[in-house]
Design goal:
The structure holds two protein chains of two kinds.
Chain A: E1 3-14, E2 21-32, E3 36-40, H1 47-55, E4 62-67, E5 70-71, H2 77-86, E6 87-90, H3 104-111, H4 118-131, H5 136-139, H6 149-161, E7 167-171, H7 179-196, E8 199-204, H8 207-213, E9 216-221, E10 224-230, H9 231-236, H10 241-249
Parallel strand pairs in A: 3-8, 3-9, 6-7, 7-8
Antiparallel strand pairs in A: 1-2, 1-4, 4-5, 9-10
Chain B: E1 3-15, E2 21-33, E3 36-41, H1 48-55, E4 63-72, E5 75-78, E6 94-97, H2 111-122, H3 128-141, H4 158-169, E7 176-180, H5 188-203, E8 209-213, H6 217-223, E9 226-231, E10 234-240, H7 241-247, H8 251-258, H9 300-304, E11 310-311, E12 316-317, H10 320-324, H11 332-335
Parallel strand pairs in B: 3-8, 3-9, 6-7, 7-8
Antiparallel strand pairs in B: 1-2, 1-4, 4-5, 9-10, 10-12, 11-12
Helix pairs in contact in B: 2-3, 4-5
The chains are: A alpha/beta, B alpha/beta.
């Protein structure tokens, strides 16, 4: 399978000289088409900066990024618009991503502006809501306060899907949800991969979630990409000490009580 | 072991601007033995933080306690709407570590200033130096660097901030500590450090019991002796951590546990289903068992009659199905069987 996105030694440094913060210190990886990749690491490891680089929301300070055969390291305004039709994102907080006074229809309608044909746009809106398990007629008239956190996050995914993106990026999209809702949202991502062949990149600090959805894992520590490989290898045969530590600290549901405490 | 906390028939409600009462804690009874950590789990909005506030006597409008009795280590208090609490209770008998405590430090003051303020609020005669010495000793006993007290909040990591706050909130040796989501903003390594510290504090007798409120079930399993599962303002099951994880006696606990994703071999391949539908609105809870509209094991009695607790004070489940099938294991497929018909 072909790689949809290729990052070659991509870097991001904030500030200059003595105050420079190296948020991403040269990451090289590929996202294969039709797979889910998880970026894991603790707070401050540079996961979200990496996501913003991939999205083209931050200019990189070194390295190259190639998407679908095109070089997308530096984009003009018009090129960005085109890029964002192919690459869409869902962010962490489903509670602050909505305008309280807009119905779902109006909210999704704003994103329709990126699609030229209005009739097609409406069709896509209905189709996208279907992908995340909604009946369009049920939700379009609703206001955000009538939806639960999981439902809101699914609307956000639907919004991203309207663009029929080749790459969907979910930055901690499920970390504010309860266990049971979280599974529903992750299942949506899995179904997208299986049914539409969407490539997904998820950013998470929860290895359990990463393990559930992703084939590939990238482990980041303080801006360095310290390990990458298939989920199976990374989780059950970790090579780097940081990955081992990260896995050891994750509380297990089954097994000895208090093994973590002693 | 002696009983540390006896809370019986607690009721508390939020007053809406329209003047209606929304009961967020509905006839909850809870018991804790000395030296125990009780975990409190449940989905957002199930009332677990509210229960923590009621137990810590920190209810503030629009939340009003309505009725109930709390006995902690022999001292009893009756709750009513007046909500008058003896000054000596907060901080000394029961102490609260609220959600997001680590972000409420003043950014312009050194942490030691807070120590002085806290101690002075409880003992006007205590000088700053004495208060600070006590805090330093406590930090040393717990293996934390005492110099963290001289730092400004931004100089400490999130994990260290939370540990220091925990130490400060227990300086008065409360009998019971209520920790509301103390780990939710921390990464796994800091979570672990905090949890280890809480255990150490319990071993050293700094406090006699902890109620740990969180929606992170694997974490609860690793820290708690017993776990209470809440649903729609009520406790539906209390049992030892192992029982909850491997053989829960309430369908809701079973379904909730099933949705937990841990880095274990079968997580790579299996498909997990969540519970369909949303938790009920507390303003209009369903009749009978509150979980019945989403439960696959539902029977006629479930919508008619509220299930009584089956078991002991310390371990019980409130479910008609469990009461009728005491020896059968709840199968998660059965609980989720109605997934197709439950409306979103």
């Amino acid at each position: 399978m072909a790689a949809l996105l290729k990052a070659n030694n991509i870097q991001k440094t904030f500030g200059h000289g003595k105050n420079a913060v190296h948020a991403v210190k040269g990451a090289t990886f590929e996202l294969e088409e039709g797979t889910i990749t998880a970026v894991v690491g603790e707070s401050g490891s540079g996961k979200s900066t990496l996501a913003r680089l991939v999205l083209g929301l931050l200019p990189s300070t070194g390295g190259t990024l190639e998407f679908d055969g095109r070089d997308v390291t530096k984009l003009s305004f018009m090129e960005s618009q085109r890029y964002w039709r192919d690459v869409q994102a869902v962010f962490q907080d489903p509670f602050s991503a909505f305008n309280q006074f807009f119905t779902v229809q109006r909210l999704l309608g704003r994103s329709m502006k990126l699609i030229e044909d209005k009739k097609e746009a409406t069709e896509r809106m209905h189709e996208a809501l279907g992908h995340v398990g909604f009946e369009a007629s049920d939700v379009l008239k609703k206001h955000p306060h009538e939806l639960s956190g999981g439902q809101r996050q699914r609307i956000m995914i639907a919004r991203a899907l309207m663009m029929r993106p080749k790459l969907l990026l979910a930055d901690e999209a499920t970390s504010m949800l309860d266990a049971s809702l979280r599974v529903n949202v992750l299942n949506v991502l899995r179904d997208l991969r299986d049914n539409l062949g969407t490539t997904v990149m998820i950013i998470t600090h929860d290895i359990g979630q990463a393990c559930y959805v992703a084939e590939q894992m990238l482990v980041m520590e303080k801006g360095d990409m310290v390990e990458q490989g298939s989920s199976k290898e990374v989780v059950f045969n970790p090579q780097h000490t940081y990955t081992k530590q990260l896995l050891a600290d994750v509380p297990k549901l089954h097994g000895e009580l208090g093994e973590m405490v002693h | 072991m002696s009983r540390l906390l006896e809370a019986t028939n607690l009721n508390a409600a939020y007053l809406t601007p329209e003047g209606r009462e929304v009961k967020a804690v509905d006839d909850v009874s809870l018991y804790i033995d000395e030296g125990e950590i009780l975990g409190c789990a449940g989905e957002s909005g199930c009332g677990k933080s509210t229960l923590g506030n009621v137990l810590a006597l920190t209810a503030r409008p629009p939340l009003y306690p309505i009725s109930g009795r709390i006995t902690i280590d022999g001292q009893t208090i009756s709750l009513d709407r007046e909500n008058k609490v003896p000054r000596t209770w907060r901080g000394e008998v029961v102490s609260m570590l609220p959600q997001g405590a680590l972000n409420s430090l003043s950014p312009t003051a050194r942490i030691r200033n807070l120590v002085g303020d806290v101690m002075k609020a409880h003992d006007a005669k205590m000088g700053k130096d004495e208060a600070l010495d006590r805090a330093r000793d406590r930090m040393k006993e717990l293996g934390l660097p005492p110099r963290a007290l001289d730092a400004y909040p931004h100089e400490l990591s999130g994990g260290m901030k939370q540990r220091v706050i925990t130490v400060i909130s227990t300086l008065l040796n409360p009998k019971l500590l209520i920790a509301d989501e103390p780990t939710s903003a921390l990464d796994v390594s800091s979570q672990r450090a905090l949890v280890e510290m809480l255990r150490e504090m319990l071993n050293q007798g700094i406090m006699k019991g902890v109620i740990f409120v969180t929606h992170d079930l694997p974490l609860l399993k690793s820290i708690s002796d017993r776990i209470a599962v809440m649903y729609a303002g009520q406790i539906v099951e209390v049992a030892s951590a192992e029982t909850i994880a491997d053989n829960a006696r309430h369908p809701y606990s079973t379904a909730l546990l099933n949705a937990v994703l841990a880095p274990e071999p079968d997580t790579l391949v299996k498909r997990v289903e969540g519970i369909r539908g949303a938790p009920p609105s507390l303003a209009k809870p369903p009749s009978g068992c509150r979980f019945h509209p989403r439960c696959g094991l539902v029977m006629d009695i479930c919508s008619a009659k509220q299930p009584a607790p089956v078991g002991t004070d310390l371990e019980f489940a409130c479910c008609h199905w469990t009461a009728q099938h005491p020896d059968q294991v709840i199968r998660v497929e059965d609980v989720l069987a109605r997934n197709d018909e439950v409306e979103e």
